[in-house]
Design a protein that fits this description.
6-stranded mixed beta sheet
């Protein structure tokens, strides 16, 4: 039983003012594996005050000084890969291949922030004016449970590279990962107050970050509903906001596709991170003329997808993060059947042979339409929906008929057709015949999938304000 008793404020691990203890679970067994003491609004205020006090000096540091600090952070986080891997398996239940990615990604994104900082133009000429990019102030960073350590390091490294100081409210459900990252960052020896970490509930610590005038900028990854609340609340103090929110991403299978060849990409896109991914391709758009053929190939492929113990090498899908999330996914599986979709694979309950743990059968609906709730609402679990389309124009219309617009995948054999379709899909990122990630490119969404962008120079821009400087020639 691990007990995490401290938060991190002004360069020190301190006992929070908050008194609530939050149970940590192993989602593979449902057992309580630890507790974390949560901070409260007073703790958030202390953290914000520390970040405000540290901001003037940090904002004036040179590019060279920030790069040196980020390099120390990178070394310290990279050295804890094995500890992060164990924490991810224990408190989140990611399958081992995904868990390894989640353990190495935190150091990778710090390295990517260093690369962005090295080439970033903080000054440029605009006619007779000089335009200077200046750090916006104290940034409040709010991270989710589905890749907590990675989101902390990505947002933090980018904010620090821009010259901002930071208050982080991580997911309380991922406290083991947070503790490992906090210890690594402490070891990196940044000036006190430059970063602060307060475990706590969103409605308490997150709310203080959203309301407090000492926070100039919020970067949030999570649900669209919470994102909308942060925009509304932050407007009172004119906060700058970057939101990376939900998705209902389409996988558009074109009529010339080789179904057997593309099926691994279809299922990887849909079931990534056990389906608990904002970018998951959960709507599979298939030509009606080839629907039966696609169903046959998909059903066979899904039969080989393993849901179970994340420590087993052949596991593709781990447990849902919590009982609440498991029950949510089960309710959508029932709903899909009630709405009239055909259940092609999976269904309610745990997979065969599993009597404990928040495991879900890899589930595939077909013969659905885009107005069904299983096609419109983010389920955040391994539940995919096949929707037939008539022609290319219909496929594009269905793909864009959503409140979301985070990511999309286009699959086909003709590159020109694929690019033509990709250019017409309303999403912040469209992949064509690949699931590759490009960290130097902007990441974010259209519509209810978010505001602003992360990664690369676009991520840096989000923490900076342009200042125009006009000087007399005399």
């Amino acid at each position: 039983m691990q007990r995490i008793e401290h938060i991190y404020i002004n360069g020190e691990f301190v006992t929070p003012h908050g008194k609530e203890w939050f149970d940590l679970h192993n989602p593979s067994t449902e057992e309580v594996i630890g507790q974390v003491r949560l901070g409260d609004a007073q703790d958030a205020q202390r953290a914000i005050a520390a970040a405000q006090a540290a901001f003037p000096a940090w904002s004036r540091t040179t590019r060279k000084e920030r790069i040196a600090a980020l390099q120390r952070m990178h070394r310290a986080v990279a050295a804890r890969k094995d500890a992060l891997m164990e924490a991810v398996l224990l408190e989140y239940g990611a399958p081992s291949v995904r868990g390894l990615w989640m353990a190495t990604y935190p150091a990778d994104v710090i390295a990517q922030a260093i690369a962005a900082l090295e080439s970033y133009a903080f000054e440029e000429q605009a006619g007779a004016a000089k335009v200077i990019q200046t750090p916006v102030g104290v940034a409040g960073l709010i991270t989710p449970w589905n890749s907590n350590a990675g989101f902390i390091c990505n947002k933090l490294a980018t904010a620090l590279a821009a010259g901002c100081t930071v208050v982080i409210k991580p997911s309380e459900m991922s406290a083991l990962q947070t503790q490992i990252v906090a210890e690594a960052l402490h070891e990196a020896g940044l000036p006190p107050g430059v970063f602060n970490i307060v475990n706590g509930r969103g409605e308490v610590v997150g709310e203080e970050i959203a309301r407090n005038p000492g926070i100039a900028k919020i970067s949030f990854t999570g649900s669209s509903a919470v994102g909308q609340h942060l925009v509304t609340t932050g407007a009172a103090t004119m906060k700058r906001v970057t939101l990376e929110l939900g998705g209902k991403s389409p996988t558009v299978v074109l009529d010339d596709a080789d179904f057997a060849a593309v099926m691994p990409l279809v299922l990887q896109a849909g079931f990534m991170n056990s389906g608990q991914a904002c970018i998951a391709g959960t709507r599979i758009l298939v030509p009606r003329s080839r629907l039966a053929e696609f169903e046959q190939v998909a059903k066979e492929a899904v039969s080989h997808i393993q849901s179970g113990d994340p420590r087993q090498a052949d596991t593709d899908i781990g447990p849902m993060v919590s009982k609440k999330q498991w029950e949510r996914v089960q309710s959508y599986i029932r709903l899909g059947q009630e709405e009239g979709a055909t259940l092609l694979a999976g269904g309610e309950g745990r997979p065969d042979g599993l009597d404990a743990g928040w495991f879900v059968k890899p589930t595939l609906f077909t013969r659905a339409n885009n107005q069904m709730r299983i096609a419109r609402e983010e389920i955040f679990g391994p539940v995919l929906t096949i929707i037939p389309y008539e022609d290319e124009a219909d496929a594009i219309a269905i793909a864009n008929d959503t409140h979301y617009g985070l990511s999309a995948l286009v699959l086909g054999t003709d590159p020109e057709s694929c690019e033509r379709v990709a250019r017409q899909i309303d999403a912040g990122r469209v992949l064509v015949n690949t699931l590759a990630h490009e960290p130097s490119a902007p990441f974010g969404g259209f519509k209810h999938s978010g505001l602003g962008r992360e990664m690369g120079r676009w991520g840096m821009n989000a923490y900076l304000e342009p200042k125009t400087l006009l000087m007399s020639a005399g």
